[in-house]
Structure formats: structure tokens, C-alpha cells
């Protein structure tokens, strides 16, 4: 998607961190790191594998600051950090209204861009971790270097909407946290119709719902954030959804596909649920009442 050059970014939705951080003044066990690496990226809830969220992040001298130089849509079109700020402001505008349709009380998630590594309530994260939502922190964490990997290693077109799809998916996990979906869903199993896959596909659907309405979201002065979305831009987002399908990842890594080990859904499923949200909105994203054969 292309931002309207004259749209206004208020700033403050995105925070940036330096290269070093620690949890609780100590170290994070190897188990947390392994969980991060196995998860690959996107839509990871790690609360069942690490601490209960009582651990506090200590920044140990790192700089934590908003992306203050991102002021206009023109900035968002030119710089990835500003694009993240613009996406966050549009997502926040969308979910402030749409949450009422889902019957939830909405609050804005934290959104942290980091470089190298950082500490979170879900464990220590590095660039290899990929983007994720951490429920104890109610925050999204992302190293923008991941977008290079999305294009070079995972085969996505890697354009602006592919990048923002990733953010919108993680934002969808925040909405699920507010809905109680994480608490109510057994995500310990795997497989093409498992609870973990249903959670991920719903987040894809929520991402699509935002894209479907993104061109109507407005800045503080009532200007729309985006120009109308083109078919090629939708194809850009679908390429990202396909690239992070379990079957695509498995085939690239091992040359074989094992549906019984799926945790996020196949490329076809992820594209289908994104499209469903795009065409029908967030209220059409109930992946939990759908038979496994229809996922």
C-alpha cells in the first residue's frame, strides 16, 4: 500500500530499542531461545513456555525512544521505520472502531522495533527470532532486518504491504489476547486443524480485515492514511502469507511436508483466511467454529 504523502503521522505508536537488553537483570535459559527459533516467525505466543509475565524487562542503558522523525505519509513511503509507525497508526484507528463489532474493550498494544537483540517478557529475542507478539508485555517486537529475510529466504515479494501484513498479523494476536482467545484455546497440539493453527489463521484473517478497510482509516486531521489499494498490492500481501505457510517453510527446509506438525497453517490456508478477512471483515474471522476439513 502507498501512503498519502500529506497524511499526518502523530508519532509515538512505535518505540525503538538499541542492541542490548536483559530480563530481570539475569539471563534467559536456552529453552526460551529454542522456542523462539523453532517458532521461526509471526504469531508466536510463548507464554506457555516461559515465565508467567511477572519478569520485568531491564534495558541496561539501551535507548528507548519513539520514532519522532516520522511525521508524514511521505516519510512512511520512504523509510521502513516510518512505514511501521504509519501502519501502527492506521491499525490503531481501525481496531478502535472494529473492536466494538467484536464486543471487546480495545487498548493499543506496544510496538517495539529493535536491532540485534532485546529482552521481553517472553524471553530474549534476536534478529533470527523474527516478528512476534508477547502476551505478558502485550507488545509486538520486530527487527526490520527480518524483511530482508522475508524476501531473500522465504520468497515473498517483500513490498510495503507484505511488510505491513506481518505487523497486522501480530496486531491480530493482540486483539485475540483482548478477546481471551489465548487463554481459552489449547495451543499445545499440532496439525492442520489444531488450536494453534486456528489461532494463526484468525490472525491472518484479522490482518486481511484491516487491509480491506485501511484506505478508509484516517489521521488526526481526517485525512486518509492510504491511497486506494491496487490488485498488485494485494498480491504482495498474499505472497507474504504464502511464504510463511507451514508447508512452504517445511519444504524449503527439509524437502518434505508433514501436515501433522503444522502450527500456523498451510500457504493455501493462510492466503484463504487473509482473503476472507479482506472481503468480509473481522466478524467473518471465526476460525474456531469451522470444521477442520473447511479450514
From TrEMBL:
SUPFAM superfamilies: Metalloproteases ('zincins'), catalytic domain
Keywords for this protein: Membrane, Transmembrane, Transmembrane helix
Superkingdom of source: Bacteria
Main localisation: membrane
Compartmental location: Membrane
A Pfam family of this chain: Zn_peptidase
Membrane topology, from the record: Single-pass membrane protein
PANTHER family cross-referenced by the UniProt entry: INNER MEMBRANE PROTEIN, PUTATIVE MEMBRANE PROTEIN YPFJ
Listed name of the protein: Neutral zinc metallopeptidase
Amino acid at each position: 500500500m502507498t501512503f498519502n504523502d500529506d497524511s499526518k503521522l502523530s508519532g509515538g505508536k512505535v518505540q525503538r530499542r538499541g542492541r542490548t537488553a536483559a530480563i530481570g537483570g539475569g539471563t534467559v535459559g536456552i529453552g526460551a531461545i529454542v522456542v523462539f527459533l523453532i517458532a521461526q516467525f509471526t504469531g508466536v505466543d510463548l507464554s506457555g513456555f516461559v515465565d508467567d509475565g511477572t519478569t520485568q524487562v531491564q534495558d541496561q542503558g539501551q535507548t528507548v525512544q519513539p520514532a519522532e522523525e516520522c511525521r508524514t505519509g511521505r516519510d512512511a513511503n520512504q523509510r521502513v521505520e516510518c512505514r511501521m509507525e504509519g501502519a501502527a497508526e492506521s491499525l490503531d484507528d481501525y481496531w478502535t472502531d472494529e473492536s466494538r463489532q467484536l464486543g471487546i474493550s480495545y487498548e493499543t498494544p506496544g510496538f517495539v522495533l529493535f536491532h540485534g537483540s532485546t529482552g521481553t517478557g517472553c524471553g530474549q529475542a534476536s534478529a533470527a527470532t523474527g516478528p512476534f507478539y508477547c502476551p505478558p508485555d502485550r507488545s509486538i517486537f520486530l527487527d526490520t532486518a527480518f524483511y530482508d529475510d522475508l524476501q531473500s529466504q522465504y520468497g515473498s515479494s517483500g513490498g510495503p504491504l507484505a511488510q505491513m501484513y506481518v505487523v497486522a498479523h501480530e496486531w491480530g494476536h493482540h486483539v485475540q489476547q483482548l478477546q481471551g482467545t489465548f487463554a481459552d484455546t489449547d495451543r499445545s497440539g499440532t496439525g492442520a486443524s489444531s488450536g494453534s493453527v486456528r489461532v494463526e489463521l484468525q490472525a491472518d484473517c484479522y490482518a486481511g480485515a484491516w487491509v480491506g478497510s485501511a484506505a478508509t482509516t484516517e489521521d488526526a486531521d481526517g485525512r486518509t492514511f492510504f491511497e486506494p489499494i491496487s490488485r498488485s498490492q494485494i498480491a504482495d500481501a498474499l505472497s507474504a502469507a504464502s511464504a510463511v505457510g507451514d508447508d512452504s517453510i517445511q519444504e524449503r527446509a527439509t524437502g518434505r511436508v508433514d501436515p501433522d506438525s503444522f502450527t500456523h497453517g498451510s500457504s493455501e490456508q493462510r492466503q484463504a483466511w487473509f482473503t476472507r478477512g479482506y472481503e468480509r471483515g473481522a466478524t467473518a474471522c471465526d476460525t474456531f467454529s469451522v470444521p477442520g476439513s473447511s479450514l
